[in-house]
Amino acid sequence: MRGFLFFVPALCALVPFDAVAQTEKQERLDSVVVSSSRAGSRTPVAYTMVWGEELKSSNPMKSLPELLSFQPSVVTYNEGGTGLGNSAITIRGTKGSQINVTLNGITLNDQESQEVFWVNIPSLSSIISSVQVQRGLGTTANGAGAFGASINMSTETAGVNPSARASFSYGSWNTLSAVVSAGTGITRSGFYANFVYSRNSTDGYIRNAFVRSQSALATVGWMRGSNSLKLTWLMGDQRSGITWDGIDYEMYKVDRRYNGAGEYHDEAGNVCYYDNQTDNYVQNHFQLNYTHRFSDELSWTSTLDYTRGDGYDEYYKEDKKLKNYGFDFSSDSRSDVIYRKKMGNNYWVLNSDLKYRRDRINLTAGANFSFYHGDHWGEFLWAKLLGDNYDYSSMNSAYAWYFNDADKKEADLFARTEYSITDRLTAFSDLQLRLVHLDMDGRDDDFHEYGGVDKLRYNETWTFLNPRAGLTYVFADGQKIYGSVSVGNREPGRSDIKENIKGTVSPIKPETMVDTEIGYSYMSGNFSVSANIYLMEYWNMLLETGRLSSSGYAIKENVDRAWRRGVELSGAWRPAGWLRLDANVTLSDNRIKDYTSYVAVVDDEWNYTGDTEAFNWGRTTMLLSPSVTGMMRAGVKPWFRASSSFKTFELNVDGKYVGRQYIDNTSRSSMEIPSWFVMNAGASQSFSIWKGMMTLSAYVGNMLNRKYWAYGWRWEDCLAGAAKDEIESGIGVYPQAPVNFMFKVSYSF
Fold first, then answer.
1. What is the pLDDT of residues 51-92, one digit of tens each?
2. Any idea which fold 3-748 has?
C-alpha cells in the first residue's frame, strides 16, 4: 500500500481522470477502414489513444501489452520476466480472451481460443501508427465481440515524403533488438510503398525464457482522386522457450529464476534439461483493401484478409505411459519421451463498411464474414524405452496419438449512428448481429484418459444481438458528460468446450454482460481531467478457475452472477513548458455473487478417482482483478528553451501500482498475489546529423529492484468428504525481472 501513496498527492493536484488532451486527426482516405471500429470525440465510451511516436520512443524490451500498461485499468505481465516472449494484458480485470484486438479493422484474436498471442507478432510497436484502447463493451468491432475491452491498432499510413529509420538496442540478459524501415512517400502518380523489418533476441530472465523472433511489414498502395488500393503483408516468426508453467512457489523462494520446463534425470540421477523445450510459430497476414469516396459525405471500404499460421510445441517428459501416445502396449510400460504438439490454421475474412457523414449525422454500417479451419495433431519423436532405431514415422502418419480439427464460420452485421440533436447534444446507437457456427471433431492428446476416439465431437450455432445506446453533452468551455448502456453476448472458446466435453468443468453456456458507462471530462490547453464510472454486470460469466490445461490455457467455467463496478480517474497537466505530469487510478469492486468450486478427489495413494467435491465460498472476489490500480508519469525537458540540440533532451519517470489480487476465485489468503509498485525511467537526446535525426536513449526498468510476481496458477485436490481446510493445494508463480537496463540508438530522415 505504500506504493499507492505515491499517487495521492499527484491525483489531488490533478483532480484525476481518464484521458490526456488529444488532437483530432484528419481522416485520410487510406485510414477510413480503421475509423469504422473506433470511437470519436462524441462517442459515449471510455477510451484512450496512444500514438506511434510514443510507442517507438518507448523501451524496446517491452511488448505492446506492456507499452499499454500505463493506460487506465490496465495490468500486464510477462511469463519470462522480460518484455519479450509470452505477454498478457488485462483491462478492468478482463482477460485476453475477452479483449477484442484488431489490426486495420481485422481481428487478431485466435478463432478457437479467442486469445491474442502477442509473441507471435513481435515488434508491433515498430509498425503501429496509433492504438485506441476502449474499456467496456465499446463500439462494435468486427470478429469476436469485445467483452470488457478492445484494442484497435492501425499500421503506418503513407507519408508525403520519402523516409527511412533504423534503430538498434541492447540490454540486460543479452536482449537485442534491431528495426529498419523505409518508405517511398506518395509519388505524383499516387503510388507508395512502406517496409519494416525487425529482429529480436533475448536469453530471458528465468531459465529457458529465451526468444528468437523476427517480423516484417510490407505495404504497397495507390491513392488517386477518390480511390485507394492497398496490399499489406505482415509476418511474425518466433521461437521461444516454454515458460507458461511458471515456478512452483516453494521453488520460487529458493530460486526465482528457476523454470522446470524440460527437466529430466539421467542414469546417475543428475538433473538435466532438454534444450529444445520450445514454442515455435510462424504467421503470415495478407490484407487487400479498397476504399472509394463517392462524395465528401459518403465513402465505402472493403478488406479481404487471409492469415496462415503454423507452429508446434516440443516437450521432453519423464516416466510417461507409452499406451497414452497410441502405442499398442498391453502393460503400463513407462518411458521418457519427446514429442511435439502441432497446429496449422487458415483464416479468411471479408469485411465491408459504408460510412456516411453529413451535417448532424454520422452513420457507419457494415458486414463481416469469416471462415476459420484449424488442425491439431501430435508428432511422436522418441521414447527412451524404444530407442533411436524405432520407426516412429509409421505411427505419426496415421495420427495414432491424436488429431482433431475445428471449423468456425461467422457473419456479423452492424449499424452505428451518431446524431447531433443540438449543437451540444449527440445521441449514439450501435446494433450488432453475430451468427457463429463451430464444428469440432477428433480426439485430444489425452484421449485414453477420457474414453477414446471422437471424444471432442461438437457442433453448435449461436445467434447474438448486441445493442448499444448513449448520449453525450458538450459544454462550451471544453467539458462534456456522457452515458451509455450496452449489451454483449459471447460464445465459449475451444479450450472451454474441450474441458466441458471431458467432464473437467460443468456444462458451458454463452455469457452475457450489460455495461453501463457514465463519464465526465474537462480539457483545456495545458490541463485535462476526466472521470468514468462503469457497471459491468455479468450472467453466466466464463471465468478462469485458476487451473491451466496441458498447453498452458486457463480453464474456465460459468458463474451465474458476477459484476465489475468501478471508477476510473485520470489527469494530465503541463504547469510549465519543461514539465508534464500524467496520472490515473482505478478503484473497483469485482465480485462473484455466490461461488462454488469443484475439487478433484484422490484416494489414500493420491490417485484420482474421477469424482469431485463441491465447496461453497459465498461472495468472493474474481481472480486476477485488483481493486486498485494506478500510475503516475513525469516528463521533464529542462533545456527546452535552449538554442542548441540540448533542447530535445527529455527525462521520463513513471510508476505503476497494482493492488492485491487472487489466483483463483475463493479469496483465500493462500491464493493471494501481493500488491506491487514498480518504477521505470528513460532519457533521450536527439541530434541533427547527416540531414537526419539521431537519437540516443537509455532505459531503466524496475529501478527500485522490486522482487515481485505478477500472475499465478494453482492446483488442488482432496480426499472424499474433506472439509475446506483439508484441501491440498499449491501455486505456481511468474516472477518479473529485477532492475534492468536498455540502450538504444536510432536514426531517421
1. 888 888 888 888 888 889 999 999 998 888 787 888 889 999
2. Maltoporin; Chain A (2.40.170)
